[in-house]
Design goal:
single chain; 209 residues; mainly alpha; 2 domains; two-stranded antiparallel sheet; 9 helices; 56% helix
């Protein structure tokens, strides 16, 4: 099932065939990812078979559990959006930064950096350093031991990295993608993404200043 798209429109109708309906013929093409279109014959062979009543019962339990988790997730999302309602202006400003299109990404960033006391970050460098996006200064006797990014920002750093990954794969900001590709040639993907994430931190600071 990992090769099938999440929540395709026709999937419930086809999964019902597993739970006892007689008609099990359906078009597999719309249900799989684009990268697997060339492997449709192999996928058809993989799913062709017989499911026993016991296996169908287990699948029903798994499906009910999944639907219950989806319901709880929807309730939590509704609660989070209600709590974030007083900060709609700040969220809208934050979402002007490249790579931040999701409401929940913006909410996650605001929940970490706040909205009222931005004096804690006098500059974008302070924000990036607090978020763990700047190299450490580990030097002894004139010798630099490490220039890795710090371990700070265990919650906000993944958000910045997620936004950076989104923006470098998007066609809306070719200038950022081109910069990432240039950086990737030398230090590699990880350091290039951290550099883009740090640039995102600068833009977020300027947007919330």
């Amino acid at each position: 099932m990992c090769n099938i798209q999440k929540n395709p429109p026709a999937l419930p109708r086809h999964t019902h065939a597993v739970y006892g309906y007689a008609d099990t013929s359906f078009d597999l093409g719309p249900l799989v990812y684009k990268s697997l279109k060339k492997k449709l014959p192999e996928l058809r062979d993989a799913i062709d078979g017989y499911i026993t009543p016991e296996q169908a019962g287990k699948l029903k339990v798994s499906k009910a559990h999944y639907e219950n988790l989806e319901s709880r997730k929807a309730e939590l999302e509704e609660l989070i959006l209600a709590l974030a309602a007083p900060y709609q202006q700040e969220l809208s400003i934050l979402q002007t930064a490249p790579g931040i299109s999701s409401d929940f990404t913006a909410i996650g960033i605001i929940s970490e950096i706040g909205t009222t006391n931005m004096e804690a970050f006098p500059s974008a460098k302070h924000l990036c350093s607090w978020a763990g996006l700047t190299p450490t200064n580990n030097e002894s006797a004139g010798k630099k031991k490490s220039v890795r990014v710090s371990k700070a920002g265990c919650y906000i750093k993944p958000l910045f990295v997620q936004c950076a990954n989104a923006v470098v794969t998007s066609k809306k900001h070719p200038e950022i993608r081109n910069r990432y590709l240039r950086l990737k040639k030398r230090p590699g993907h990880k350091k290039a993404i951290i550099a883009i994430a740090r640039n995102q931190g600068y833009k977020i600071k300027s947007a919330t200043a």
